[in-house]
Design goal:
With 455 residues, the protein is α/β, with parallel strands linked by helices. The chain contains 20 helices and 6 strands. It folds into 2 domains: 310 residues, Rossmann fold, CATH 3.40.50; 95 residues, no CATH class.
Length: 455
């Protein structure tokens, strides 16, 4: 057959069909914005890629298409140029053989990863499809259920192992065994969401109710953020009334969590594992391959909307915190006094300290500079005749004589007082002789002769 003899030509045809026929442009732009094309050696860490989403494909009922869904969903995501990791957690290792990996006990597998014998990066294997990596399983994995019973952090072994790889892959798909044991528990604790494949039959409805109870218990104990990615109907035959009734009941219960895409019964899906290839590599035009491609498209759109919502929530929270933060209070500083005002204040204080009788000084300040100055004797007589608070007026001659006699006492009293400011600070003061005569008359009232009331 053409698709078996020329796998690389078929792979190019698959990429062309996915990018131009099935997946819409928004999904392709979203993938290209977050990831770049990888080489065949190892999965490079994309600088713009956020933490990868871990999806566990689980259902405790067997034969519902968990392995087929894991293989073809991971392959469809990788064909859309999205770095994808597929982890086989089933001891039957059907996922490993379905991608062309023979059973090899010497090869590093999920068993070695869970037991701590190696890191998850060391166990990576590269299948034929680009941008898809696999951690295969082995039948020894069944022994991990017994060996992990007494181990420390036994429920978190898978989560701790996958933590270093979450920034390298946008999607990590875990294929769980059909049982609720430690392997399934590890996968559900490590997962962000659960994808539930189920048949449109009555027994499948009973199994999903028990699985939902298990998911609720895991949320309470180990993984409170575990979500339901969705329910996908597999081996769906829309011609039967039973299938239509089961689909209707699931849609009432799960609502939007029930994927619009259902996987029909298809012979190509059953033939592809025997060739060690995913269905889209084995026959991309088959109904089964197209259905899984549409399922991958739904998951891509859901993830894009989820990340946009998360980014908007982070921005809204940052804006609320910024608005709620109190405005910074400016520090109170002392008012700045200009140097000229400070000099004038100091000069005024010195003048008040030097003049105990402000009335006499104020009378001297009233002399205007624009008026012509009187003769020296006239100014002295006028200043002596001026009424002084607490003193009795006296004749001019007597006042001059008293002022002459009181001069030594005024000089002695002025020696104990601070020196007056320089004359430049008082441009309106009278000459020094007049000021000195006024000060002597004020400070020595007892030296003046008594005057009778009749005079």
């Amino acid at each position: 057959m053409f698709h078996v003899e020329h796998p690389f030509a078929m792979r190019n045809h698959i990429s062309h069909l996915l990018l131009h026929k099935i997946l819409p442009l928004p999904a392709i732009r979203y993938c290209n914005r977050n990831l770049h094309r990888a080489n065949l050696g190892s999965a490079p860490a994309s600088p713009t890629n956020l933490m990868g989403r871990v999806i566990a494909v689980a259902n405790q009922k067997g034969g519902v298409g968990k392995t087929t869904t894991s293989i073809n969903l991971a392959s469809s995501l990788a064909a859309a140029e999205v770095n994808t990791l597929l982890v086989d957690c089933d001891p039957q290792s059907n996922t490993s053989s379905g991608l062309g990996f023979a059973r090899d006990p010497e090869r590093l597998s999920t068993y070695h990863v869970l037991m701590g014998a190696c890191g998850a990066e060391e166990a990576l294997q590269k299948p034929e499809l680009e941008q898809l990596w696999v951690i295969p399983a082995h039948k020894n994995l069944i022994g991990a259920n017994l060996e992990l019973v007494d181990a420390e952090r036994r429920e978190f072994r898978m989560r701790d192992a996958l933590a270093p790889l979450r920034d390298r892959f946008q999607f990590i798909v875990l294929d769980c065994p059909p049982a609720l044991d430690l392997l399934t528990l590890n996968a559900l604790v490590a997962a962000d969401s659960v994808l539930i494949p189920m048949q449109a039959e009555y027994f499948a409805l009973e199994g999903i109710s028990e699985l939902l109870d298990t998911v609720s218990r895991i949320r309470q104990s180990f993984n409170p953020l575990l979500d339901i990615e969705g329910v996908v109907l597999t081996m769906f035959d829309e011609r039967t009334n039973l299938a239509q009734q089961v689909a209707s009941e699931l849609r009432k219960y799960f609502g939007e969590k029930l994927f619009r895409t259902s996987i029909p019964r298809n012979i190509r899906l059953a033939e592809a594992p025997s060739h060690g290839k995913p269905a889209l590599v084995y026959d991309v035009r088959s109904r089964g391959a197209e259905s899984y491609i549409r399922l991958a498209k739904e998951i891509l759109h859901t993830e894009a909307a989820r990340r946009q919502h998360a980014e908007a929530a982070v921005q809204a929270t940052a804006a609320e915190q910024l608005e709620a933060a109190p405005d910074p209070v400016p520090a109170q500083t002392a008012p700045t006094v200009p140097p000229q005002a400070a000099l004038e204040a100091e000069t005024g204080a010195a003048q008040l300290a030097a003049d105990p009788q402000p009335g006499a000084v104020l009378s001297a300040h009233t002399v205007s500079e624009s008026e012509p100055q009187a003769p020296l004797a006239t100014q002295a007589t006028t200043a002596a005749d001026a009424p002084i608070a607490g003193a009795v007026p006296a004749p001019a001659a007597a006042g001059s004589e008293a002022a002459t006699e009181a001069r030594p006492e005024a000089a002695a009293a002025g020696a104990n007082q601070p020196a007056p400011s320089p004359p430049e600070a008082y441009p309106s003061l009278p000459p020094p002789e007049i000021a000195e005569a006024v000060m002597q008359a004020v400070q020595a009232p007892e030296a003046q002769p008594a005057v009778e009331q009749g005079d």
